[in-house]
Amino acid sequence: MNKPDPKINKKRAPKRSEKVLPDALVPESQWEILGQACMVNGKAVRLRQWPTRYGDMPSKESMQERIDQLSERLDRLLTCLYAQGERKLLVIFQGMDTAGKDGVARAIMRGIHPMSLRMVSFKVPSEIEEAHDFLWRVHAQVPGAGQSIIFNRSHYDGVVMPIIQDGVAQEWIDQHIRQINDFEKMLVESDTTILKIFLNISREEQHQRMLERWENPDKRWKLTEADLHAGENYSLYANAYETVLEKTCTPHAPWWIIPADHKGFRNLITAEILVGTLERMGLSWPEPDPIVTKSEFWKKSSI
Fold this sequence. Notes:
Strand order of the largest sheet: 2-3-1-4-5
Number of domains: 1
Helix content: 40-55%
CATH superfamily: P-loop containing nucleotide triphosphate hydrolases
């Protein structure tokens, strides 16, 4: 019997520069450090024990240089995800008032092509939304194939706020947390990568930022009675978030707790985690349309 020719039916591996994105900007060693410092990963969530600021931080110039580098990489990764049109990315930002959900989103989205990334902000539920389950309005906004979506607040407010304001029973809390975990598992099983980030701000820094908002006419309009309630009841909010974060940190959708007292460092760490997450999704550029590939156009040396 003749031995099969190894050259027959053997697909030629595509060149890395043609098919696969370049080497990781966030290498494994750095990813492990980020995970150990920021990912909940089964650890008890006591926000007072999680850092809100690090003493040893890079210089402002070094942080901005790194953020610019990460932003350029992020744009390419998100464009690749969009072009591939298969995977989905959902980024969830949670945090107490003034923690910087808007600020970090602006920092991340700066320089990103609008087709690659969209932000959704959830306000107080409307009358129609109140008539449905608390996940109804959220499900309508999750990413489709090739899409990347940022949630500025999310379905987690549908549990945290009732705990604080309504004093709901433990049975109610357990039921809603189970529904969240089931909902997110369904999304992950539908090729959605979920990145959940809690911006951890100290009581002192929150108070200072509220004062700054009041003193700045450009920001004063943001303040509401609810903000005053949040500032006066920091511990109530912290306790509610501790309950929810710990019980919704799952293997398929873990929580990252980011120190948020320093805005530049907050933005840097968030960008590192976002880029690292995308780099580990195994993205690659799709092959061009076969008709385009076979076209005689490419053989012409000039018009």
